[in-house]
Amino acid sequence: MLSHKSESVKVLIRCRPFNQKEIINHSIKCIDIQQLDNKNHQCIIKLISPKRYRRRISRLFRFDSFYDENHRTEHIFQDFVQSLVCDVTLNGYSGTVFAYGQTGSGKSWTMTGCLCHSENGLISNAIEHVFHLVHHHQSNNEQEKEFTIKCAYLEIYNEELHDLLLPRTSLKSSSRLELRENPRSSGVHITNLTWKNIYTIEECLKLKRLGDLARTMGSTQMNRDSSRSHTMFSLSIQYQHNSQTKIFRQGKLNFVDLAGSERQIKTGASGQQLLESAKINLSLSALNKVISSLVQTNTTHIPYRDSKLTRLLQDSIGGTTKTIMIACISPSEDNYDETLCTLRYASRTKNIRNTPIINENSSYILLQQYAEEIERLRAIINSSNIHMHSLSRSIPLNEVKLDDQHSIKTIRDHQISSENSPIIKCQRTISCQTMSIMTDTVISSTQTIYDIKDHDYKQLVIVFDENQHSYQFLAWHSCEISSEFNRQLKILVKENKNENSWLGTLTTTIENKSLIWKNHLYHRQHQLHLSEHTDSIITHFKIQETIDTVSSLSTFSLVLYTSSNYIILDNLLLSSTDKNQPINNHFITLKESNGIIYYLSDMLYSLSTNELLVFMLDQYHHYHLHHIILNENCLFENNEQIEIEHCSCCLNNENKSMNNKLISCSHHLSFINMSCEIEQENKIHKTNTHFINLDNHSIYLD
Ligand SMILES: Nc1ncnc2c1ncn2[C@@H]1O[C@H](COP(=O)(O)OP(=O)(O)OP(=O)(O)O)[C@@H](O)[C@H]1O
């Protein structure tokens, strides 16, 4: 680490325009600019107490700059933030920009901007500039330089830290983060915080928007969209020069949008909001104490540990970070007290001196990287434990433990809980086969196969690896397991692409370790005895169609693949005129086309049609299972088109068959958009749009 000279925290004042209420009330302006020295970024502003006060006082404050309603956020960015972004991206400094001010004074407006007013916030300006700088460097023949850009987003809500880039679940506790002291720096370390690698501006903005959606907001009398938490959006830019010198730098840029200080009387807070408000004010007063202690020359103890906020900002205030404070104020006399308070706060902050350092080639950074890597690997090991656990309970067919009630239940329970979606490690999985499954009890000897009721429908998914060496796992979807299940399992078989009819039943038996293939159309039965030998493990099956060129008749065979061989069972004739279509299933495979992001997704509708089971294959060859509940909300985004490898799907609704065809699909990191045409009685009835956010396990239906 190279040490640098100390410098004071830069403090800018931003005064928002009068709001509607203030205009109606003919509010009087209490703030005025006294002197502005653009060259040295120095300004003096005057605050005048309102008439209603017995003594009218004018107070003068000196800051680095002042922005009023005539300025846009872009001006702040160009004057101050742009050079900070440059220092962080190219020189390895850490930088923090934080917005402070009373509720409704324009902090979020400054940080995040407002799409409806085409006002970009500082964060999006900074993201664009980081990418601009990186591209500029890379295109300037500096191939040896390698940049890695990551982002993270968190909030402090009621004195708890939450990861805003984690899937949103009903339980806030699942995203809770811990702060740890960093023994080698003046900052803190946040364990398990999600750092997402980002490759494009759009990707990063999308993650920011996702985080914004997850942020805790509320409506108060002072602000319709009031932030009820403090947030920190961070960008990490790692830079490596692969020449002989092997320079490594890591810059970090934080944007902190503080929740507004607020008075209960003005905001009208009660109940939960009052509690939130108390926590907000408590952490802001802890920040105030830290600032006061830092500027008092005789203080040795700085009370950083008094709140999560002060611990988080420890390195930004009095530490090794280049820091800019944007104090947001209202122009109106009505808010005079709050404005005075903010200006005093800001004025004190201006006296704080930080000692920015370049984070370069330091053993600490390397150690930190190793620590992060260890944490990542630990997470993988943990998830593989789950996988081992689940797999150890999903058993090859020849061992006839398929009907082990406990094992099936274990997998089913995992599936049903969207919060605890299992990650099933499935090396080189390339495809999936779907079948429909029925327990022995459902099909009695007197029932015909078409008597099966909708609610009896079950699905079985078999995943196998590309070399067909092993049976990966069995997954059940919305399956009620009967007690008879222990004895026998029957699997109704149907070809994926052909929804015409059931082809037959596969039955496993415990007693004689056999597999029976029964063709329902011709009442033929084949019995295959499975040996104990592992070679006989059935990896998957396929229905093979052969067309006789002379008679134009299709014949179908059932091909059972084992780990070393395959067995073709007798030809079957499939009736194409069969109108009885008991239940349809569907099978969708989505495959990313440009080779950067690797997701393979298979989706299965449940019977209730408001649930989806999504299978994803990520770049680490982890197979993810997500149980998704559809909700009423509608959100649709246009993303890049991706290749659709295979798709055909059907829904069964009151015994009427509907073909649901996927007509377009796009994919962007964690989103899948699908448009579906529903075909009924040979007519296309409506187009459905599904927006699936894979990270958040949620789906929006149009
Ligand atoms: N510079 C500005 N120009 C125009 N309108 C502004 C500006 N700043 C704020 N506003 C208006 O004030 C409203 C409140 O701003 P904002 O939500 O950013 O406040 P905040 O300080 O983040 O409040 P809270 O602490 O309650 O979250 C905005 O919805 C917007 O209408």
From TrEMBL:
SMART domains: KISc (SM00129)
InterPro entries given in the database record: Kinesin-like_fam, Kinesin_motor_CS, Kinesin_motor_dom, Kinesin_motor_dom_sf, P-loop_NTPase
One Gene Ontology biological process: microtubule-based movement
Kinesin motor domain: residues covered: 8-352
Similarity-based family: Belongs to the TRAFAC class myosin-kinesin ATPase superfamily. Kinesin family.
Binding-site positions, ATP: 101-108
Keywords of the record: ATP-binding, Coiled coil, Cytoplasm, Cytoskeleton, Microtubule, Motor protein, Nucleotide-binding
Chief subcellular location: cytoplasm
GO terms, molecular function: ATP binding; microtubule binding; microtubule motor activity
Gene Ontology cellular-component terms listed: microtubule; microtubule associated complex
Protein name: Kinesin-like protein
Organism encoding this protein: Rotaria sordida
Cellular compartments annotated: Cytoplasm, Cytoskeleton
